[in-house]
Design goal:
Layout: E1 2-10, H1 15-26, E2 33-44, E3 52-61, H2 64-70, E4 77-79, E5 100-102, H3 106-117, E6 123-126, H4 131-144, H5 178-188, H6 205-221, E7 225-228, E8 232-238, E9 241-247, E10 252-254, E11 258-260, H7 267-276, E12 281-282, E13 285-294, H8 295-303, E14 320-322, E15 328-335, E16 339-342, E17 352-355, E18 364-373, H9 384-399, E19 406-410, H10 411-416, E20 434-436, H11 445-459, E21 471-476, E22 483-484, E23 500-502, H12 513-537
Parallel strand pairs: 5-6, 5-11, 6-7, 11-23, 19-20
Antiparallel strand pairs: 1-3, 1-4, 2-3, 8-9, 9-10, 12-22, 13-18, 13-21, 14-15, 15-18, 16-17, 19-21
């Protein structure tokens, strides 16, 4: 097929308009067009009064080779690449040793699914509960201030991505089109078909719950096995190679291939890995607040008179500012029409995150406004970044009143450096609740100074961004993992522990659902090839 890029049409165009644009772009007769599919659909809103739809299309025509030769040199007409997924291995029927996947977030889901599809019958260990039971426990914190340390926004089937906006796009390089495989599997699991072609696909929490269940059922159908509420207490290592796992209930699992897809909040597991001598090192991450505005304000600013158009949906934004103290301030995980949620996983600490449903029709828009920090800000051992996070999460718990309420401040008061005493036109969505006051001591002074400088600067890009009544809620500390569990570039195994495959966001190799899922596929392939190599050598049963 031929691929056409940058096909632009008015916002309210018809299907006939699209067909006419294809014919004009290719310079063919209408009868030569056999079929077309939309590979990508986005929009350009730089001119708010004249928003245009922008398409990438795959087109089948008669005498394709002839037309392709005629159009050589046209950068907007190429041969469509093969984006189908090709398995790298197939497990032997008599395989007895099973690979183990620790964690069933986006990375673990796809590592387990690909291994199962190749016949390796993975064993999946998840410290949390099945997704519906986990959802009940998570609501327990939001509604009753009851934190379940092993079942919350961070831990349980589906991982942290389940309670998020469900964004399904990423900026990672993907030359093998693994992202396409991810989207196809999501559609098989009852995701809306549109995620295959809209430029910024998302699903939302409620849809993700059902999808995760269906993907688990598929893995089981293919021979996989799940053990929920199964926390790994130790990794057994002999001669620099994994030989087994010890669980919190005292049971033992023999295995020589382990996918470590534990997410960015498994702090006790990070401590175990460090104590075991598995090589890891601190890495940069970001901390800050959640900010909430009326979604209508964001829509009006970004989309102008076309705000509310059903094709465009709720508007988003992406902002970056370089503060005078040398710090970068940027928006993170923007959730249109969503809510700010309690994302704590440890008692006595407050953490915020953002979430949206598929409809994105809640009153407020929210995003993290965060500041980049590096290991130079928390010098010490490899886990110093984790302790740094804990310090500020504990401070947020204290400022919020010690009952899982979050500390908050109105943007106008924050900029003016005065405490807030009452809410204005924007009511925060965070549950259990927000305690207004002064955020000056909630984060390091250099973070406060950078955000205070950035908010008026963001006003220049989005009118109303620094409105007095917008609300800041603290604190956002889990933007990414504070550590990197280093692995080899070629076989993706730990640099000092054979058979251990650090993967996904927790190991420092992803950030978000899509990049984590893609890394899960890469690691599954590496595990499969390693197991076949071990079978050939006689070291894997």
């Amino acid at each position: 097929m031929l691929r056409l890029t940058d096909v632009q049409l008015p916002l309210d165009h018809s299907e006939e308009d699209l067909l006419a644009a294809i014919i004009a772009r290719l310079g063919i007769n209408a009868g030569d067009l056999i079929k077309h599919t939309v590979f990508r659909r986005g929009y350009d809103a730089r001119k708010k009064n004249a928003i245009v739809m922008v398409y990438t299309l795959d087109v089948e025509v008669r005498d394709q080779d002839q037309h392709a030769k005629r159009l050589q040199g046209n950068r907007h007409v190429t041969i469509a690449p093969d984006t189908s997924y090709h398995f790298v291995a197939q497990a032997p029927a008599d395989l007895t040793m099973r690979p183990v996947v620790i964690g069933f977030g986006p990375c673990g889901i796809f590592a387990a699914l690909i291994l199962a599809q190749m016949g390796f019958r993975p064993l999946i260990l998840e410290r949390g509960k099945e997704v519906r039971e986990r959802t009940k426990d998570t609501f327990g914190l939001w509604r009753k201030r009851e934190l379940h340390p092993e079942s919350n926004v961070q831990f349980g089937e589906g991982g942290a991505g389940t309670f998020s906006d469900g964004k399904l796009w990423s900026q990672v390089k993907d030359p093998k089109h693994y992202g396409r495989k991810v989207l196809m599997e999501f559609v098989k699991a009852d995701a809306p078909e549109e995620i295959m072609y809209v430029s910024k696909p998302h699903i939302g929490t409620f849809r993700l719950v059902k999808m995760v269940e269906l993907m688990r059922e598929e893995i089981v159908r293919l021979g996989g096995e799940f053990r929920f509420e199964s926390k790994v207490d130790d990794i057994e290592i002999a001669d620099g190679k994994v030989c087994g796992l010890k669980l919190a209930d005292g049971s033992h699992i023999e295995t020589d291939h382990v996918v470590l897809a534990i997410g960015h909040s498994a702090r006790d597991t990070f401590e175990m890995l460090h104590a075991r001598g598995i090589y890891l090192e601190p890495k940069a991450f970001s901390i800050g607040f959640r900010i909430e505005h009326p979604q209508s304000l964001i829509d009006a600013c970004r989309l102008g008179p076309n705000a509310g158009h059903p094709v465009l949906g709720a508007a988003d934004y992406k902002l970056v500012y370089h503060a005078s103290n040398g710090r970068s301030v940027y928006s993170f995980c923007m959730c249109p029409g969503g809510t700010v949620v309690a994302a704590s996983s440890e008692p006595g600490r407050v953490v915020t995150n953002g979430m949206s449903q598929y409809s994105r029709n809640e009153r407020n828009a929210n995003a993290g406004i965060v500041v980049g920090i590096t290991p130079a800000d928390y010098p010490g051992h490899a886990l110093a970044g984790m302790e740094f996070q804990r310090q500020w999460e504990s401070r947020a718990f204290e400022l919020g009143g010690g009952n899982y309420d979050a500390p908050g401040q109105l943007v106008g008061d924050f900029i003016a450096d005065r405490p807030s005493t009452e809410f204005g036109s924007v009511m925060p969505s965070y549950k259990p609740g927000v305690k207004l006051g002064d955020l000056n001591t909630s984060l390091p002074s250099y973070v406060i100074a950078a955000i205070r400088e950035a908010l008026p600067a963001f006003e220049k890009q989005i009118k109303g961004f620094s409105m007095n009544d917008a609300v800041l809620t603290g604190v956002e500390t889990r933007t990414s993992s504070p550590i990197s569990i280093k692995r080899n570039d070629d076989d993706l195994q730990s640099i000092n522990t054979r058979g251990l495959f650090p993967a996904g966001e927790g190991a420092g190799y992803a950030g978000g659902i899509m990049s984590a899922a893609i890394d899960g596929i890469r690691v599954a392939e590496a595990v499969a090839l390693s197991m076949l190599e071990g079978i050939a050598r006689g070291t894997t049963k």
